[in-house]
Amino acid sequence: MNIHLSSTSFEPEKEIPTKHTCEGADVSPALAWSGAPAGTKSLALVVDDPDAPDPRAPKLTWVHWVLYGIAPSVSSLAEGVDAKAVGAREGLNDWKATGYRGPCPPIGRHRYFHKIYALDADLGDLGRPDKAALERAMKGHILGQGTLIGTYAKKGGG
């Protein structure tokens, strides 16, 4: 089942504003979703970049945010949200830290996939899982999902 994921911060397939990147305030964009299926017990969110390090020759997917344990009553995240304020738990991004880290591509224009998952279970406290650990915990529990893609290329060279 598809969940509609959108943002008031950027349009689908369009550029993510600088304030949500390493060249700006590096705050998470506003996100909203609808259409979570009946039986949803929790939601999870992953933001990643499959174009790292160079979109012409991608070698890995770089993870920017891992969030889980979002209550089914929550249908949006405000810009710069504190996960604890909405009762969510954070996993590790690829900087080995919790929290949102925005686009900071070393070269070229990258795509950033914001993915929401509706789960038929509350995963409990997984500690600080990376994306792979969260995906293992979600296996067999995904009722629906949605994706919103934004792009970014650095303005200041480098």
What's the quick description here?
Helix content is 5%, strand content 34%. By secondary structure, it is mainly beta. The strands form two sheets. It has a five-stranded antiparallel beta sheet with strand order 6-4-3-7-8, with helices on one face.
What does this structure look like?
With 158 residues, the chain is mostly beta strands. The protein has one domain (4-134, 145-152): Phosphatidylethanolamine-binding Protein, CATH 3.90.280. Helices cover 5% and strands 34% of the residues. It has one helix and eight strands. The protein has one helix at residues 131-138; strands at residues 4-6, 31-34, 42-52, 60-70, 76-77, 89-90, 110-119, 142-152. The strands form two sheets. The chain has a five-stranded antiparallel beta sheet with strand order 6-4-3-7-8, covered by helices on one side. The longest helix has 8 residues, at 131-138. The protein is globular, with a radius of gyration of 15 Å. It starts with a strand and ends in a 6-residue tail after the last strand. The mean pLDDT is 96.
CATH topology grouping:
Phosphatidylethanolamine-binding Protein
Just name the CATH architecture. Alpha-Beta Complex
First-last Cα distance: 41 Å
Number of domains: 1
Low-confidence stretches: none
Q: Helices and strands: which structural class?
A: mainly beta
> Into which percent range does the helicity of residues fall?
under 10%
The 3D shape can be described as globular
The percent range for strand residues is 25-35%
Multimerization state: single chain
Determine the number of helices (DSSP H or I, runs of at least 4 residues): 1
